[in-house]
């Protein structure tokens, strides 16, 4: 699935393959959605829940881990319990990215993610 996004608010459109999205961030104060990939951050509009529902209905596995973040479960490579982070790593390009997870419901979310993606690395 390919979606239309922008590179920045004042630049043109770009087509983005959903498969490349690591996590989605709601920037609610400016009513914008940021889609994070290893190639950069791309922007669109709409509520976070809309994008999660759309992608999941198309067969992807996105999961809300915080009120502002939804992650691509299949791109998740680890969970850092000490800092409450979802981790994404690509050894081919030697790049790692993280996003925060809900503090209050962290243990529940982490356990559900381990069931959804048993291959993730847990660090404490």
The global form is globular
Largest sheet: 5 strands, antiparallel
- Rg, alpha carbons: 14 Å
Instruction: Give helix % range.
Output: 10-25%
The whole-number mean of residue pLDDT values reads 90
Helix/strand order: EEEEEHEEEEEHE
Architecture overview:
The chain has 124 residues and is of the alpha+beta class. Helices cover 17% and strands 43% of the residues. The chain has two helices and eleven strands. It has helices spanning 48-57, 106-116; strands at 2-6, 13-17, 23-27, 32-37, 40-44, 62-66, 69-72, 78-80, 85-90, 95-100, 121-123. A five-stranded antiparallel β-sheet has the order 5-4-3-7-6, sandwiched between helices. It has a four-stranded mixed β-sheet with strand order 10-9-8-11, with no helix packed on it. The chain has a two-stranded antiparallel ribbon with strand order 1-2. A hairpin with a 4-residue loop joins β9 and β10 (95-100). The termini are far apart. The mean pLDDT is 90.
Keywords:
17% helix; 4-stranded mixed β-sheet; 124 residues; alpha+beta
Summarize the structure.
The chain has helices at residues 48-57, 106-116, and strands at 2-6, 13-17, 23-27, 32-37, 40-44, 62-66, 69-72, 78-80, 85-90, 95-100, 121-123. By secondary structure, it is of the alpha+beta class.
What is the element layout, followed by pairings?
Elements: E1 2-6, E2 13-17, E3 23-27, E4 32-37, E5 40-44, H1 48-57, E6 62-66, E7 69-72, E8 78-80, E9 85-90, E10 95-100, H2 106-116, E11 121-123
Parallel strand pairs: 8-11
Antiparallel strand pairs: 1-2, 3-4, 3-7, 4-5, 6-7, 8-9, 9-10
């Amino acid at each position: 699935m390919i979606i239309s996004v922008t590179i920045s608010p004042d630049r043109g459109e770009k087509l983005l393959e959903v498969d490349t999205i690591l996590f989605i961030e709601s920037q609610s104060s400016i009513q914008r959605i940021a889609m994070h990939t290893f190639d950069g951050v791309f922007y669109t509009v709409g509520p976070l829940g809309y994008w999660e529902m759309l992608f999941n209905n198309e067969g992807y596995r996105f999961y809300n881990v915080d009120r502002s973040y939804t992650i691509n479960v299949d791109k998740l490579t680890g969970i850092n319990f000490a800092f409450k982070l979802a981790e994404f790593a690509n050894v081919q390009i030697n790049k790692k990215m993280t996003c925060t997870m809900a503090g209050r419901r962290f243990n529940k979310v982490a356990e559900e993610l381990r069931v959804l993606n048993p291959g993730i690395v847990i660090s404490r």
